[in-house]
Amino acid sequence: MRRMFHAKYTRIGNNSPALIKAVKIDLTRHVASTLDALQDETRYALDRELGTWKVAEGDEEDEFDDQQGSFVSWVMKWTDVKNRENPSTLAENQVTLSFAAIYTTTMASTHAIFDLISHPEFIAPLREEIDQVTAEDGYEIDGSGKKNLKKQSFAKLKKLDSFLKESQRFSPSGLISNLRLTTAPLLLSTGHTIPAGVRIGYNLYQVNNTDPRVSPISNLSSTAPSLDSPSSFSPFRWSSLRSVPGNESKYQFVTTSKEAMNFGHGSHACPGRFFASAEIKVVLVELLTNWDIRLVGDEMGTGGERPANFVLDATIGANPRAEVELRRRKV
């Protein structure tokens, strides 16, 4: 699992020892004071899940029921039988998948924030959409009196969805997508053969920045909107495409296709993209609704140069040194 994770998702394996060492130093510096509590909590969680599994072991229908709502139990469903009671294996799988989910979601959220504050002219239309949707649907009020978006509202935030898709097009998680290992010789239509045991992938940057990827208009009606150049950040290009009859469910942030591979494609496309999409939208809705946000020093609110991404090997990350200013809105 760890080798697969490093190779296919983070791309920061053995060829980046400096980064791994930096993470290790930072973790070990602070872990001593919390290690006992973490071990107790982990032991409690694993004992509970293993106990649930043993009780359900004789009932195939109930085994690893997704309704248990525990990520550990979901992973156990796909763990080799001999390792299902191995706490080390379960912990490694949990940490590996948590890192993959938390890091990518954090980066996508940060990229979107940087795109928003460097193009503040798009803040008003996004706020208008949020206000319109919440006026129609209302909120869910939890036990503490806090207002939460209703599930049905997420699908109606088409401009926000489009904004996130465009942000991801410019700042994906990496330069390469759909990394795979050939298990047998692969004959291409060109006549070339890729041997078994070769790692292959798609040039995601090229896919994201070519006209067929950004202007899929061949099957659209004559009323389809014209599109900007692929090099232009046009956050509502996708919501405009979805306004064409027949396209209502296409070109979404979570959509995967041969032209949209930021989440992968096919049977191994990112299974968590739907949850991640909702999670990122919650962050953006909170910021847009309750906060004014800008680049440091942007007193006129006109935006400015977007904080540059960093690229490590084939991994793309948000600028960790960039600074933003926030102030609670006076509504």
From TrEMBL:
SUPFAM superfamilies per the UniProt record, alphabetical: Cytochrome P450 (SSF48264)
Needed co-factor(s): heme
Keyword Nucleotide-binding: no
Binding annotation for heme: C270
Family matches, as InterPro entries: Cyt_P450 (IPR001128), Cyt_P450_CS (IPR017972), Cyt_P450_E_grp-I (IPR002401), Cyt_P450_sf (IPR036396)
Family: Belongs to the cytochrome P450 family.
PANTHER family recorded: CYTOCHROME P450, CYTOCHROME P450 MONOOXYGENASE AN1598-RELATED
Protein name as catalogued: Cytochrome P450
